[in-house]
Amino acid sequence: MTAVQRVAIAGAGVTGLAAAIRLARAGVRVDVLEAKPELGTQGSGISLQGNALRVFGDLGAWEEIRDAGYPFEGLTIRAPGPDAPVVAALPDVKMGGPDYPAAMGMPRPALARILLEHAQRAGATVRFGVKVVGVEQDEHEVRVLLDDGSVEAFDLLIGADGLHSKVRDAIGIDTRPEPIGMGIWRAFVSRPAEVERSELYYGGPVYIAGYTPTSEDTMYAFLVERAQDRFDVPEDEARSIMVEESRAYGGPWEHIRRDLEAGAPVNYTWFTHHLIPGSWNRGRAVVIGDAAHSCPPTIAQGAAQGLEDALVLTDLLLTRDAVDGELWEAFHARRVPRAKAVVDASVQLARWQIDGVRDADAGGLIFGVAQQMALPA
């Protein structure tokens, strides 16, 4: 007996599809409602830590994800300058345990495609171009109002619909993501052979410059700057900004600049932070992933925390008899402190950079959080 028989999941991102796979695989009827008309095929890359990879193993998707990405160990720190001198080569904590690499990068569209295929094979129904516009509920069911005027009833609604969650709004949670003061340029470029793991450059004209390999042939490069209104910058100008802001950095950045000048795709966004205080649910509706918490990717735990949300929630739904107060207490006890540790540490690292704090123990903070994340969620 499971606590639910029919579940709606708003959002076909990493978090929502992970929840869909686990529930559908157990025989629960799952409808994934995605507002976008189709699965995104554009995007740069994503960094995934070992605790995220451990969840992919549970989903049965690890081998495909590994083959579509670029696993690696460790982190290289470089300094600005034409020679890009290596300051440190750091080992990573294997947060997923000995069966998984410490980290990996991969193209976002490839990850989305693999998880979608697994969700559909498990029996989940994924419906694109369907928007949740309202929620009504009682103690027995939750009724989801859709943009075509229809109403559908479920045992549970999971809002995995991202930073600007419509489910969060519909169930009356007023916590919102707040800008932290940093913006990031991302570009999807080819990978030179010398780049075999993530590398970060601190100092120079931006807060952080870096890149992460995503396959044998590709990587994504990024520049973290003071947040500015760059959202409507034409793509040619965006590439020029990245080229100019990166001129202080040598090494593989010479290769990246050539790709930018040749027309590599670029995007820009701001870092945000938030954490819903107290309960993430209202009755039979709950938000998880970026809908419940966000943070700067200073320790690359955003996707991992959403995946852990999905894992813990579905564990409870599949091992309990009812959606009740005891289930929600168990969920929040396992998830809120862990997500808070990641959000607090990520925000602290960002603020140290914004404030120019030179004696901050960034390494100690990152290592401490990594040790926490190495324990299963």
Oligomer: single chain
Integer tally of domains: 2
Order of strands in the sheet with most strands: 6-5-14-15-16-13-17-20
End-to-end C-alpha gap: 23 Å
Helix content: 25-40%
Structural class: alpha+beta
Radius of gyration: 21 Å
Task: Describe the structure in your own words.
The mean pLDDT is 95. This protein is 34% helix and 28% strand. It has helices at residues 14-25, 50-59, 62-68, 108-122, 166-170, 235-245, 253-261, 302-319, 325-355, 362-373; strands spanning 6-10, 29-34, 45-49, 70-72, 75-78, 86-90, 103-107, 125-128, 132-137, 142-146, 151-154, 156-159, 178-190, 199-202, 208-213, 218-226, 266-275, 281-282, 285-287, 293-294. The chain is globular and about 65 Å long. The protein has 2 domains: 6-70 and 107-177 and 273-373, FAD/NAD(P)-binding domain (3-Layer(bba) Sandwich); 180-271, D-Amino Acid Oxidase, Chain A, domain 2 (2-Layer Sandwich). It has 10 helices and 20 strands. By secondary structure, the protein is an alpha+beta fold. Helix 1 packs parallel to helix 8 (302-319), helix 2 (50-59) runs parallel beside helix 8 and helix 8 packs antiparallel against helix 9. The two termini are 23 Å apart. An 8-stranded mixed β-sheet has the order 6-5-14-15-16-13-17-20. Strands 8-2-1-12-19-18 form a 6-stranded mixed β-sheet.
Task: Describe the structure in brief.
The chain is α+β, with helices and mostly antiparallel strands. It has ten helices and 20 strands. It is 34% helix and 28% strand.
